[in-house]
Amino acid sequence: MGRTVIELGGKVAIVTGAARGLGAAIARGLIDAGAAVTIADCDAEGGTATAAALGARAMFHATDLTRDEDLDACVAATRARFGRLDILVNCAVTYQDRGLDATRAEWVQALNVNLVGAALLTARAGAAMTVPGGVVVNIGSVGGKFGAAGRALYPAAKAALLQFTRNAAVSLAPRGIRVLSISPAWTWSPALEAMAGTIEEADAVGARVHPVGRVGRGADVANAVVFACSDRAAFITGVDIPVDGGFSILGPDAGRSPRQWFAREG
Ligand SMILES: NC(=O)c1ccc[n+]([C@@H]2O[C@H](COP(=O)([O-])OP(=O)(O)OC[C@H]3O[C@@H](n4cnc5c(N)ncnc54)[C@H](O)[C@@H]3O)[C@@H](O)[C@H]2O)c1
Questions:
Q1: What is the pTM of this model?
Q2: Domains of the chain and any CATH numbers
C-alpha cells in the first residue's frame, strides 16, 4: 500500500508573523505540503529573506496588523498573486508584557496585535476565501491557560484568542469555513533561544515540564497546522489542539507524586 501524505496542492495561505520563528516554520510546512503562502509581517527585512528562502510559491507582503488598510491590502495582494485564498494562520505576536505594571497604552497595543489584528484579519480573509473548505488557524499558547507571575497582557490576549476561535467557528461554519486554534508549549524559536542559549539547554530545562522530555520544534507545530488545514480535519472546528509535549496535562505537581516531592526535599 502506498504512503499517504497530506496534500495542500493548489491551496493558498496567509501566515502572519512568518518572517521568523514558528510562523516561518508553519509557512515552510504549508509550502512543503504544496500550498502557496503569503508571509504577512511588519518585519520587511526578515519577511523578504524568509520568502526568498521558501521559493516561488512564497511571497512577502508588508503587513502591520494594527493597520486596517494593511489587512485589506494583504488579502488583495494574495488573491492578485495566487488567484484565491483558502487558509489563514494567525501567528504574529508581541511578547511585550510588563504584567501589572503595564500602562493602558501597552495593554491596548498588546491586545491590538495579539487579538484584534487576528480577529479583523479573520473577518477579511473569511469574506475572501474560496468556500466551502476555508480554514483559519489561530496560534494560542499554554501561556493563555495557566497562571504565571509577572505577565498579564500576553496570556490575556491568548486566552481571548481561544474564545474568539469558538465564536468565529460558529459564525463561519455556515459558509464552510473552519476556525480552530493550536496551542504550543515552549518551542524552539528566537524567543526561547534568547533565554536558553542552546537547543540542548532548552531541552534539558524543558524536560522538567514537558513529559515527552524536550521542548517543541517549529516542525511539530507546522505538522499540526498542515493537518488542521487539510480535508482530514474536515469535522474539526472551534476547538484547541494542544501541541505541547504533554505540558498541559500536568498539574501544579509537575507530574510528581507527594512521595517523590518529599523524597526530593528530604
Ligand atoms: N516560541 C514559543 O515558545 C511559543 C510558545 C507558545 C506559543 N507561541 C506562539 O507562537 C507564535 C509565534 O511565536 P514566536 O516565538 O515564533 O514569535 P516571534 O517573536 O519569533 O515572531 C513573531 C513575528 O510576529 C511579527 N509581528 C509582531 N508584531 C506584528 C505586527 N504588528 N504586525 C505584523 N507582524 C507582527 C514579528 O515581526 C515576528 O516576525 C505566537 O503566536 C506565540 O504566541 C510561541
A1: 0.97
A2: 12-265 (3.40.50.720)
